[in-house]
Design a protein that fits this description.
Layout (H helix, E strand, L loop, with lengths): L7 H55 L6
Pfam families: Spot_14
Family: Belongs to the SPOT14 family.
GO cellular component, one term: nucleus
């Protein structure tokens, strides 16, 4: 038997069916990963905002109000 005797559509169909069966699981995995990334970014953004606010407070406290 030669390699050309195998029908590519037969193997492709079997792979497609397996992929379709896994599609919901894969989508769930990716959505979960995306949610985790967004959660991490939100936490980092909040921490950065707090730090920035602290720095601004220190700058404002360091300024002499009578010099204005």
């Amino acid at each position: 038997a030669s390699v050309t005797d195998q029908s590519p559509s037969d193997t492709g169909t079997a792979l497609d069916e397996g992929a379709d069966g896994n599609l919901e699981e894969r989508l769930s995995h990716h959505v979960s990963g995306l949610q985790q990334v967004l959660t991490d970014l939100t936490k980092n953004t909040k921490a950065l905002t707090r730090r920035y606010s602290q720095i601004l407070e220190q700058i404002n406290l360091g300024e002499d109000p009578s010099s204005s």
